[in-house]
């Protein structure tokens, strides 16, 4: 399938998930993530989930990272430039839902993209080669292009891999993708 078809398919599949399934599978993904060889790193980027879109709830990953005393950056999107700013998540970081229904930091200490060692990437679909399909605005492709080449890119998905994404413009490839049942390494 091409990206457009995959976006439709996975938005439809997500919409069939109950709130209980989203929570149960999000916990399973966080538990699977504990098996990844990433926990010696210091700087992690984690997106804040859009519950209306039934995204993987990253709250559980955040708890793990906070429990391990890691430095966590969360994104703030600019829909004029399609760029993101990355704010250090602290106890007092104010979070507000944007006009696009995205929970974001209001203000805080900025972290440059080059500082991140691990980035948890939102996606709609991925294939067995680590190619991903995002929402189509390119926020994460622009961000990941600014990260160091050795930065680990980890997708999180409720669903298993597609065989192949048909498209010339493939989003930035992943190093890993974590599902409730499996870790894919690319």
From TrEMBL:
It is an enzyme of class 6 (ligase). It catalyses: (6S)-5-formyl-5,6,7,8-tetrahydrofolate + ATP = (6R)-5,10-methenyltetrahydrofolate + ADP + phosphate. Gene3D superfamilies: NagB/RpiA/CoA transferase-like. Its cofactor is Mg(2+). It comes from the Bacteria. Substrate binds at residues 50, 55. Keywords: ATP-binding, Ligase, Magnesium, Metal-binding, Nucleotide-binding. ATP binds at residues 3-7, 132-140. One of its GO terms (biological process) is folic acid-containing compound biosynthetic process. Its EC number is 6.3.3.2. Belongs to the 5-formyltetrahydrofolate cyclo-ligase family. This is 5-formyltetrahydrofolate cyclo-ligase. It comes from Marinirhabdus gelatinilytica. The lineage of its organism: Bacteria, Pseudomonadati, Bacteroidota, Flavobacteriia, Flavobacteriales.
């Amino acid at each position: 399938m091409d990206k457009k078809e995959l976006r439709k398919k996975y938005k439809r599949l997500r919409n069939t998930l109950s709130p209980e399934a989203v929570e149960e599978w999000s916990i399973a993904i966080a538990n699977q993530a504990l098996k990844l060889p990433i926990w010696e790193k210091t700087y992690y980027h984690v997106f804040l989930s859009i519950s209306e879109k039934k995204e993987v709830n990253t709250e559980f990953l955040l708890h793990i990272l906070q429990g391990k005393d890691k430095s966590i950056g969360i994104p703030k999107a600019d829909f004029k430039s399609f760029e993101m700013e990355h704010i250090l998540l602290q106890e007092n970081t104010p979070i507000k839902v944007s006009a696009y229904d995205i929970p974001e930091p209001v203000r805080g200490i900025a972290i440059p993209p080059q500082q991140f060692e691990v980035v948890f990437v939102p996606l709609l679909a991925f294939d067995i080669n680590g190619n991903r399909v995002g929402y189509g605005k390119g926020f994460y492709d622009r961000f990941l292009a600014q990260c160091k080449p050795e930065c680990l890119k980890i997708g999180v998905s409720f669903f298993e891999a597609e065989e192949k994404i048909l498209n010339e413009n493939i989003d930035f490839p992943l190093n890993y993708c974590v599902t409730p049942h499996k870790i894919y390494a690319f």
